[in-house]
Amino acid sequence: MTSPVPLAEAIAAHVHDGDTVALEGFTHLIPFAAAHEIARQGRRHLTLVRMTPDLIYDQLIGLGCADEIVFSYGGNPGVGSLHRLRDAVENHWPHRLVVHEHSHAGLANAYSAGAARLPFAVLRGYRGTDLEEQTDIISRVTCPFTGEELAAVKAVNPDVSVIHAQLADREGNVMLWGITGVQREAVLAAKRAIVTVEEVVDEFPERTGAVILPNWVLSAVSVVPNGAWPSYAAGYSVRDNDFYQQWDAISRDRDAFLAWAAENDLKETSDV
Q1: Regarding predicted confidence, which is higher, 127 or 89?
Q2: Sign of CA dihedral 30, 134, 93, 244
Q3: Is 221 helix (H, G, I), strand (E, B) or coil?
């Protein structure tokens, strides 16, 4: 992979009905444009994986794209609830949603195990919670060396991971910086990976703490300036806090949500 491709072409080629899809980016660099393209192409029966569902999964769940979700902390950051997620769980609208909840540390370790092609990861966690009783992706193992009981989390290996980054170079390598979350692990754990970027440059700048993903772990790169809106891309855009606040009213009411979806060419009329 060396040449960028249009986003619609990348989604059509690499995201399929029934896939397990991880759209990662922690507060920052959330790949909203790619998520909207997934919705516009009418993908269904997805299992969505993400550290924090944020607005991006609230939208995909409300649009009927997801059957299951694997996540850690579901909320509209700094605002309140995710009403489309809540409506799906409580009222099965637009249909039933199967929920698998992790802690942040548990899901991060599950991605790391997936990236290392191991079947599970171990950590000291989940004590005092009942999460392992609610899902089959958390269990317990005994350390063969010390006898200590540890939490075990099933590895996450998405069919496709999608992230947003600041830069790609002419060879198709990708560079991101700022709050980098688990994008690297999500890409390395996946069978396929799509990256949207702000721009293509001849040579990456020197930047302490940056993450560089080589082209041989990526399936497609698409140039989508401002592709993380309403989240942000350090050095390119700031978070649209007004939209995050407006989303509370939009998502709280089904008719308001459907009107928003129609205005943005996201409404799939067949089953929503």
Answers
A1: 89
A2: negative
A3: strand
The residue type of 109 is: N
**Of 176, 229, 230, 231, whose CA–CA distance to 199 is shortest?**
176
Give the integer Cα–Cα distance in Å for 121 and 141. Answer: 10
Pick the closest to residue 114 from 70, 149, 177, 60 (CA basis): 70
Reduced to 3 states, what is the DSSP secondary structure of residue 91? helix
Residue 225 tokens, joined? 């300036």
pTM check: above 0.85: yes
DSSP secondary structure letters along 109-174: HHHHHHHTT-SEEEES--TT--HHHH-TTEEEEE-TTT--EEEEEEPP--SEEEEEEEEEETTS-E
Question: What are 142's two structure tokens?
Answer: 């005994």
Q: What is the pLDDT of residues 78-90, one digit of tens each?
A: 899 999 999 999 9
The H or E element that residue 8 is part of is helix 7-14
How many residues does this entry show for the chain? 272
Task: Yes or no: say if 60 and 46 are a contact pair by the CB < 8 Å rule.
Answer: yes
Tell me the CA distances in angstroms from 67 to 20, 80, 97, 100, one per residue in order. Answer: 10, 23, 5, 11
From the CA atom positions of the chain, what is the Rg in Å? 18
pLDDT mean over 137-149: 96
- Alpha-carbon dihedral 14, 20, 21, 22, rounded to 10 degrees: -140
Per-residue exposure over 160-176, b if at least 16 CB sit within 10 Å of its own CB, e if not: bbbbbbbbbbeebbbbb
Residue pair 33/224 in contact (Cβ under 8 Å)? The answer is yes
Alpha carbons 243 and 235: distance in angstroms, whole number: 20
Tokens of residue 145, six digits: 């060396």
